[in-house]
Amino acid sequence: MGQGFGKAYEPEEGVNTAGNPSIHEVDGERRHVLRCTTAAVALLMGSHTLTAHAVAAVKGKPLGFTGVPVSSADALVVPPEYEAQVLYRWGDATGIAGAGAPAFSADASNSWQEQLLQSGMHHDGMEYFPLDKNPRHGLLAINHEYTDDGLLHSDGMKTWTVEKVRKSQAAHGVSVIEVVERGGVWRVMPNSRYARRITGNTPMQFSGPATGHALLKTAADPEGMRPLGTLNNCAAGQTPWGTFLTCEENWNGYFATQEKPNPDEARYGMRAKGFGYRWHEFDERFDAVKNPNEPHRFGWVVEIDPQDPTQTPIKRTALGRIKHEGATTTLSRDGRAVVYMGDDERFEYVYKFVSRDKVKPGGYKANKELLDHGTLYVARFDAQGYGRWLPLVHGEGSLTATGGFASQAEVLIKCRQAADAVGATKMDRPEWVAVHPNTGEVFLTLTNNSARGQGSDPARMADASNPRNDNIMGHIIRWREGKGQGSAGRSPDGDASATEFRWMHFALAGDPNAGKAEYRGSIKGDMYGSPDGLQFDAGGMLWIQTDVSTSAMHKGAYSGMGNNMMLCADPATGETKRFLTGPAGCEITGVTFTPDRRAVFINIQHPGETSSERGDPANPKAVSHWPDGPTGGRPRSATVVIRRKDGGTVGT
Hints:
By secondary structure, the chain is mostly beta strands. The chain has helices at about 25, 40-45, 50-55, 110-115, 150, 160-170, 265, 365, 410-415, 415-420; strands at about 80-90, 125-130, 135-145, 175-180, 185-190, 195-200, 205, 235-240, 245-250, 300-305, 315, 330, 335-340, 345-350, 350-360, 375-380, 385-390, 425-430, 430-435, 440-445, 475-480, 500-510, 525, 530-535, 540-545, 565-570, 575-580, 585-595, 600-605, 640-645. The protein is globular.
């Protein structure tokens, strides 16, 4: 996902300077890079020889659509047997009951009050919630990650006012919209009793172990119980009890702080002027010098009940404070909730939360406190395909008062530092997690890390789980939970609550024609780079979305890879086929299916984005005029629904 406005705002080396042991130090005798081969499949299944089970697994299924070629066109391209419909663009009315439906102004002259009733900007993670057991009538909960203030306002940032700050805050957050399909056409329902906008100023509440801690208290909220707003909502998740988990990622960029940030601020990437949003000039909440605890109130997973527009969103502190990319929820063998999360920055970590209690029938009301009690873990990827989940529990190991953590609340608020202390593995930008609906295998995108291999820190060198220095292409890793030992011929049992796992690479991304071997990858099928969005459909096919930054797109090793794209892969064989390509300057993100798989929703984020990540208000269509075409005023992020023309199952 977006890392800020251009390379000037992105520390190439990352902000993690912890001296964690590298894989080379943890298990120097068993260093090994696993590839997505039949032998590696056999190893994952619990044997160094190819078993009958593994042979059956690699047979796979055919990918039933016509693959599309790479494209640099300013268009959304899907297979010829499919059709795509733009459903919900930035500035479209959300359809909130009794609140009006202001039309989008092509010159971006809508007021901040109108923006509160319209779709936010830069659509990202998304989930579909069917209503009344009807697969084609439901709710979409959609993240709005950040804003391009060059396009959001008529004159961009030429002038700067409190009204512009409020509009930018209103364009962040989440939309909940009601959608229905009739006669093959989807529409957003007006005057919906479910529809709502959640923004950077929506009242929220804390829950879990850190609630009320001194580090969460401010002058405006002296009890440390009621934060205001959610920001930089990136990937997301859906719980088994029907709620939406939205994740606060690059929240640090909204804060201004002292010229030399303190160690805690530096560990989360804060800097004197943030990412240049300039909110602090009219909203002192975002001046960390005046309000040093306000940054602690962001970086959480937020739970929202999409069916109750009156529900106060809840920041679940038990899941830790990081730059949350996503929150993918599954069940342990005994029925407890397990939430997988990535911290999207170079050399950061992979986390897992296991609830104390079992999921109960009865929806959100019956599970209202489920995510407040449990154990948070961080991953250590050891050599030769072994791994361990390390508990982040106060009083264990170095997580004590003498180690800088006075309580479990401080472990969670300073989650990155706690993960440093226990020796987690530094990864190449851990992003989306997907869990196979049949096998329980877990897949994770590691988008890229051009700083891998720079300097002399062993933990920043290529290792078994992050096998390439100068990793500009990224990779996808997979694991199976449990204690299975290959030499004993026993497979990991797949219980999501396990504290050990076996891992391997699914694919190293790249262009097979690249000049450098490190950039060629190991993809079986259509090439791609910078994998980001990741989702399984109910049939067990893996959908992969890419996020090549506009500063890298069409340049160097990416010169032949076209615009960002979505692909479908068979996890059994690794066969990969390109399903769509996006318009110029966009990222492809946010994938969710109707239960009958007759439709898939995806998001086109920031079409027309420039390499600086801020548009020119004098020439807003310099890069793209999608989706409104040449007569439109400016490019607009949008939710798109895609279906087969014959009404069949998507992907088959």
